[in-house]
Design goal:
By secondary structure, this protein is mainly alpha-helical. 66% of the residues lie in helices and 0% in strands. The protein is built from eight helices and no strands. The longest helix is centred in the last third of the chain and has 25 residues. The protein is globular and about 50 Å long. The chain starts with a helix and ends in an 8-residue tail after the last helix.
Length: 162
């Protein structure tokens, strides 16, 4: 009945986001919400929004980079914080595997979404400056990849649109 009510993705996230030794306090009202208050919705919405950005960039003639992307044009604090957070992904996944702690992945993905949405609200990804645009598109492409991979590891869908 719970899976029919809230869906598999939400149930998985809510159960995996708890430490093994932590008491489970399942907030059914929160699980039903399709808003930024629901962590699963918020993370999936970040992924879907990035998919839209990348599609818009491609339609605007910004082709995916080949090889290493030049991120030196990233200077805004929100961009740099996001880039630094992306850089710790290998350590997060290693720790989660070694300690059998999938909640670390849940927390990390939620933190990425919490960093991405304000970045998106404040900065236009595809703009007039081609260097900044290419760097921001590369940042979004990396973020999309990590969100999709992390959600996939948790067994949660990474929708391309919502």
């Amino acid at each position: 009945e719970l899976l029919n009510d809230i869906g598999v993705d939400v149930a998985r996230y809510f159960f995996l986001a708890r430490r093994m030794e932590a008491h489970l306090d399942f907030d059914l009202d929160l699980a039903r919400k399709e808003s930024e208050e629901n962590p699963v919705f918020y993370i999936q919405y970040a992924h879907a929004r990035i998919c839209s950005i990348l599609e818009f960039a491609e339609n605007s003639g910004i082709a995916p980079g080949v090889g290493k992307d030049d991120l030196s044009a990233l200077e805004e604090p929100e961009e740099l914080i996001l880039a630094r957070k992306l850089a710790v992904w290998p350590f997060v996944i290693q720790k989660a595997a070694e300690e059998r702690s999938p909640h670390d992945i849940c927390f990390y993905l939620l933190e990425l979404a919490r960093l991405f949405h304000p970045f998106y609200a404040k900065h236009r990804v595809v703009g007039e400056d081609k260097d900044i645009t290419r760097a921001r598109v590369a940042l979004c492409r990396a973020l999309k990849g990590i969100l999709a991979l992390g959600l996939g590891i948790l067994g949660i869908n990474a929708p391309e649109n919502m």
